[in-house]
Amino acid sequence: MVSVTQTQFATPAVRRSFFPATLGRLLRRPEAGSLAGLIAVFIFFAIFGGRVFVSPAGFAGWLNVAAEVGIVALPVGLLMIAGELDLSIGAVIPASSVTLAVISGHYGAPEPVGILAALAVGLAVGLVNGLLTIRTEMPSLIVTIGTMFAVMGLTLGFAVLLTGSTSTAIVPSETAKFFLGQFVGGMFQVTIFWWVLIALVLAYLLHVSHVGNWIFALGGDRVSARNAGIPTERLTVALFMISGLCAAFVGVSQAMVYQSAQVAGGQSFIFNSIMCVVIGGVLLTGGFGSIVGVVIGTVTFAMVNQGIYFTSVDPNLGSVIIGALLLLAVIMNDTFRRMALAYSGKKKG
Question: From the CB of residue 271, how many other CB atoms can be counted at a distance below 10 Å?
């Protein structure tokens, strides 16, 4: 006799019970609402943006934006899941760019020295943010606003003092451009691959390693997490340092791509990264979110940001559409979360 499994001849009742269970699991995912939004946005611009939007050039347009913003948004997402926020990234990006350009461009030091110094700036700012947050017990929003203005002032002062200008040029070598500033196929920035790599590393950290449980616990209830033996202070400092490092990396990449560093650059990354994270389903109150959701939110933001230029809509309305998208994303994410909680409650009952 040939034995068969029960699933080969599942009854209709069993099959019907499978789909609600699967739907419930999908609804409980933090990125459920953002995925629906991504699909809707892509369909909209694929229809009204014409063939250019779905062409390689169109994909390159929003993927290049998504890569730069995404590298910053990923660690910001981790911080928000942990119940913290980092606004100093807007100052770290130009500070690292200027550091690299001054050391390796103005003074002619080897590029590895300039790159390491630029990344060290991000790590140092992250360290200060973390220590001030845990020592003063002030909200990280206030702490990072303070460090943002401090870093902006220092960057401006040192740039003018050392070079006499707020803009410094740098001519990267072929090796540096290959890893940080090259356009693959003449359209796609190499930073796209770095974005994917960083997303995979942070996804492992948050969703596979035990540190991920610490991050969620930190955002859910810091006191309970501390009482449970989680090293909340070291974890907070580490998350801020990761955020500073990634922001500095974007600054280094921008200096290599545009072959210059501007003291005033990087301010748009503050709110753009937060929007990507919120669109991706991360709660502002912490304790809920995913790396996949942040990636989806980043792609959605980039599509809207660049897709508006492929349509007949006035590009000046782009900010209005992005603002409306943010509000809609918050409503959708909250709705999906409530549906998930309601489904879980019924299942337990």
Answer: 13
Structure tokens at 260: 């210059």
Residue 104 CB partners (closer than 8 Å, separation 6+)? 110, 111, 113, 114, 115, 170
Query: What pLDDT is recorded for position 29?
Result: 67
| CA pair distance 56, 42, nearest whole angstrom | 15
Which structure tokens are listed for 243? 């955020």
- Both tokens of residue 58? 């169109």
Scored b (16 or more CB within 10 A) or e, 114-124 reads: bbebbbebbbb
d(CA 204, CA 212): 8
Q: pLDDT tens digit string along 268-309?
A: 899 899 989 988 888 888 888 899 999 999 999 999 888 888
The sign of the torsion formed by the CA atoms of 81, 82, 86, 92 equals negative
| Alpha-carbon span 340 to 327, nearest angstrom | 20
Give exposure, 219-254, as e/b (b: 16+ Cβ within 10 Å): bbebeebeeeebebeebbbbbbbbbbbbbbbbbbbb
| Torsion from C-alpha of 144, 145, 147, 150, nearest 10 degrees | 170
